[in-house]
Amino acid sequence: MRDPVISCVVYAFEMLIVYIFYSRIAEKRFSTAKCVLLGLSLFEMCSAVNLVFQNNALINFIVSGISQFCFGVWCFKLRPFQAAGYSVCLAVINLALEVGSVLAISALTHTEPSGYNTNPALLIIECSTCKVLLFLTCLILSYIVVPNARGSKHQLSLLFFPLLPSVCLAIFWYICLQDGITPKVQYLLALSSLIFFGSTVLLFITYQHQLEMDSERMRMKSENERLLTEKSYYDILDQQNQQLMAYAHDAKNHLAAIQSLNTDPAIERYIVALSDQLKTYTSNCRSGNMMLDVMINKYVLECECRNIRFDYYVRSCNLKHVEDIDLVAILGNLMDNALTAAAQSEKRFVSLETTMRNGYSVIVISNGCDTVPETREGHLVTAKEDKKLHGYGLKSVYKTLKKYHGDYSWEYNELENIFVVTVMIGSPQ
């Protein structure tokens, strides 16, 4: 492969195949665009080395393995020994397919294995055949490494599609070697081979992207349904609280009447104790926003059950302008995360404060947190094991805040092990 253009194109295709493989078995460290740019830089350097050493098989094998290893470690969350194993495996597979495809096509077409070295059209067809087979092999390998890879049940049927271009490319090779075939026809067949390969990869990428988008929509729909269910739960709690508070109010009046008629000291002490308990119950949060009050009272009880200290101050800003369902999405998700982290920390506390700043309603939530939050591309990532099924709470928060021209930021104090999230909420659109 001594043609610079063909070499650059082939290594670019190889990078794309390796990127698809790594992205199916590991999480990306950067955005897709950044990963692709870094990958192209690595693999095009391999192309340059390949040209300098005049397509030396051993040098090409070593350099390809190194580039795949660096690509896996730099752009994906793979441990070094994992990336090393995958890179060696991919390099061996690539070399075997290059040799195997040339020998197989040569045997089928009764031609010399080295015939493509003197014919650029045959070289393009040979490279396309090899990369189609590499793509198919990497897909199969990804299903083996991660059996529940994204959309694997649906994409399994697509494994048959790369086989069709492979058969067509072998036919193109045979046609190119027939007497009377002009160079123009040969190059047209070579171009068709590239189109076959490109369409194979493009079809898979498009289909995978569509599956991920469908999955994202289903999860967001599930999150919205969860929020509606949670709001209904808070509505029921509010009705119960209103009834209980009315009962407590009447009970206090009855106790006061009994107290005025009583002359027994023992009964007096008993009535005082009951009155104090009723005062404690009726002293729950009263911010002026019923939904906020119900949510805070619910978290007060939950923190008591989980032995977490909960402090709150919401009277200066009761978030009255925020719709109930949106308040559940914003405050509910953030408080749930705070309680989960606080329950696992030494400093078992959660603090909630609301205030006004520059025309914005501000929510500040602090909690104990013993581990540094995991991030990806500057965004928080759920600490739960199954990240595909979780992590939509913060997405729901961000989506809801856009409705109010708002945003949120966070910081983590490693010295004191305290996590703080600050939410800015403006006027609704």
Concise overview:
By secondary structure, the protein is of the alpha+beta class.
Describe the structure.
The protein has helices at 4-25, 32-52, 57-75, 80-109, 120-145, 152-155, 163-176, 183-261, 265-282, 290-305, 324-343, 392-403; strands at 309-313, 349-357, 360-368, 375-376, 379-380, 407-413, 418-425. The chain has 429 residues and is an alpha+beta fold. The protein has a domain at 4-222. Helix 2 runs antiparallel to helix 3 (57-75) and helix 8 packs antiparallel against helix 9. The longest helix has 79 residues, at 183-261. The protein is elongated, with a radius of gyration of 33 Å. The two termini are 59 Å apart. The relative contact order is 0.06.
Global outline:
elongated
**Biggest sheet overview:** 5 strands, mixed
Structural class, by secondary structure, is alpha+beta
- End-to-end separation in angstroms reads 59 Å
Helical content band: 55-70%
- How would you state the average pLDDT, rounded? 79
The parts where pLDDT drops under 50 for at least 5 residues are: 150-154, 385-390
Strand order of the largest sheet: 1-2-3-7-6
- Secondary-structure element string: HHHHHHHHHHEHEEEEHEE
Radius of gyration: 33 Å
In percent terms, what proportion of residues is strand? 5-15%
Helix count, per DSSP? 12
Give the number of DSSP strands.
Answer: 7
